[in-house]
Structures are given as C-alpha cells and as structure tokens.
Amino acid sequence: MTVSWIVTGLGIIVSLLGYYLTPNAWGYGILGFGLAHILLGVLDMFRQPDRSRY
After folding, report:
1. Residues near 28 by beta carbon (within 8 Å), at least 6 away in sequence
2. Residue 49: its pLDDT value, please?
3. pLDDT, tens digit, for every residue of 1-54?
C-alpha cells in the first residue's frame, strides 16, 4: 500500500510540472506521464494481495 501512495504522489508532482509546461509539446507528454502514474497508483490500491497460494 505504501508503494501505491508513493507512485500516486510522484504522479501528482510530475503532473503539476507538466501542467505548468503545457503550451509546449514536452508539457503535454510530461502531464500524460504523471496522470498515468496517478491512475496506476490508484488502481494498485484496489488490487487484492496474492497471498491465498501460500
């Protein structure tokens, strides 16, 4: 769960950086990269741990 929060937090920071650079093509790429990390971090929080095999 801690890793999910770290990924989400870094995604927020990167998204804010990309938002301030948006008139540039690099800004849109950085913004999308950050938003993808936010999405993946949140989805990872809902994932069930795979401990049923042990």
Report:
1. 18, 22
2. 74
3. 889 999 999 999 999 999 999 888 899 999 999 999 999 999 999 887 777 655
Residue 7 near residue 44, CB atoms below 8 Å:
yes
CA dihedral 47, 52, 53, 54 (to 10 degrees): 120
Two structure tokens written together for 28: 């849109």
Q: What is the pTM of this model?
A: 0.81
CB contact at 8 A, 12 and 38 = yes
**Residue in the structure block whose two tokens are 């990390």:** 37
